[in-house]
Target: 2-methylfumaryl-CoA isomerase
Amino acid sequence: MSETRPAPLAGLKVIEISAFVAAPLGAMTLAQLGADVIRIDPIGGNIDANRWPISDDGTSIYWASLNKGKRSVTLDLKSDEGKKIATDLIAEAGTLVTNLPARGWLSYENLSQHREDLVMLRLNGSHDGKPAVDYTVNAASGFPIITGDDERPVNNAIPAWDVAAGLYISNGIIAAELERRSSGKGQEISLALSDVMLATVGNLGYIAEVQTTGKTRGPLGNGLYGAYGQSFATSDGREIMVAVISNKHWRGLGKATGLSEKLEMIGPMMDVDLSTEGGRFEAREAIDAVVRPWFAAHTVDEAAAALADAGVLQGEFQTFEELVNNDPWCSLENPLFGEIDQPGVGRVMAPRAPLSFGGSPAGAAVSAPTLGGDTDEVLRTMQTGE
Amino acid sequence: MSETRPAPLAGLKVIEISAFVAAPLGAMTLAQLGADVIRIDPIGGNIDANRWPISDDGTSIYWASLNKGKRSVTLDLKSDEGKKIATDLIAEAGTLVTNLPARGWLSYENLSQHREDLVMLRLNGSHDGKPAVDYTVNAASGFPIITGDDERPVNNAIPAWDVAAGLYISNGIIAAELERRSSGKGQEISLALSDVMLATVGNLGYIAEVQTTGKTRGPLGNGLYGAYGQSFATSDGREIMVAVISNKHWRGLGKATGLSEKLEMIGPMMDVDLSTEGGRFEAREAIDAVVRPWFAAHTVDEAAAALADAGVLQGEFQTFEELVNNDPWCSLENPLFGEIDQPGVGRVMAPRAPLSFGGSPAGAAVSAPTLGGDTDEVLRTMQTGE
Model:
């Protein structure tokens, strides 16, 4: 049990030709799990090369953060010579991730003539050809309407569809690699960002809910749907999120606040069964009213400590600055992080993959390449191989 | 190329003992890609068995939506007999996904004595033992502070961390299966929900940004960071999201609105280079001011058509009801969906996995089991095998 084996994806070679969040995140996840990933960009960089945030010298922190652990090759992809080199690199690697239109030289039909067992995943905006990005897919999803206090649409700040699409991409590539090792055959995989949204909306029950009940959930502010949860302002000007899911949490809320007896009165008053999640959801406004003054009379630390002691789930809202500068979760104490020297950016903390493999560890956090920084080495190795 | 091969994960057998979104979604993703997944619950169901939304007869639409394509076995997991049967099922399958504390009989040490090459993935709230769920992890992430128009925290309505964790779980299991087929060895994998959040915050550049520049992005309403995008009210009381990322999009915005000349005036007026994403971001308020009246004078359909013709990314905000009832993306025209009969819920549309495999198709949408509905069959097959 104690010997260390190579990372789970050791031996897998992947070419990526893409930009923005989803496809780069998918290929980076493969690299973090041990694959050898080469990202090919046009000379001067793809459309995301200079994307904000940028460092003081203009280096894209965005690009560096989404391309950790890859090698970077730049080619003139409009020239026949550049297309030929890219084709050779794809044929040598055997696996391709792209969000470009897979036409002409980049079609599966053409590339698989150069590598018979090619695995190629193509990310599209939608299944029907309508252009789509995270922001427009999100508008269609229904979620912005129920975010916040009213039905005015509010976008999430998390690019949730791009993140999910990236993780579907790595799932698809690893699954196809598993299949290839048994069948000896490759295949083309397609994924649409809009389908990632639609599948998630369905997996979370929203589609069946509308189809069978004719209605859905409205905006709940910071409240939880179908259970009890709320955010509360504390006496020191902070705000805390409280989640009450199990009956143990519910008893804990009464215990932490000393308000058990008053909370018990809500059941008969509202005609609900407070021993169920649904009953507590129905009585949420009354629960809010009973406990809110307790939060207003305590600091966030006092409230967090009392709730934690009583086994209630809680978390203080914080800014990115507070997360990075003050939270032990986001520090080198957490084995998720390592310190790296990122060219053009500086010495920063970077995460590895959040998955920890006990038998075949996937490696520590590493930096991203500079744009095109591996071109000479990759092309030299390739020519040697011919 | 034309013969159809088994689904990518055909032959993989997985036991799941879990609840809520992340771990059930991870195991459901494995099932959707072809694995044989058995979810084991306590008799009467786990804590998520009755979670809202519920159908008119009280069946959990939530549970049904997150357990499609699995088999369901219920056991008395507090009894020695129940633990023994679960142990035998885990040993037979060889792969386990759980979000329970992996102690006692459920520890890797114990279970691997019954199946030497066991792959077991355990989802935790945090790496350091602090209890955490999507809502509390989200509060810590920094995102609620920059969601909406001001720094008052606004929760996302999407359980983004649970969804990402579910997709990391399936990545972890498939990667370990790939490794096991080559090494012959199993391993324990751990994943913390808080680390999924922290890794994502890092991958999107927020950590390096704070560390190197000392600051970060503030709330932008529905605007885009580092590029130009905004939502606009239209003359028919609707709202549309517009995203301008490339220079082609930028020229298209001027063309669609007929305001190119006025938009050009913004560059010298604001001293920015409007041919860059960053320049357009810096000039966003002036751009908003110039184009907003055009949106107010057009219906959402007129605006969408003009923008689409000019190659600008756009999408109308809609409710879940509108998505499900009116949007062709969310209909049986989209091959993502199939119609299923879900016991206790009714005839509804359900998604398959959004990944389409050309050579080894992963199968159509299927329904979820009823709680415990496969217990007899699974136990009978197991006893026969002994």
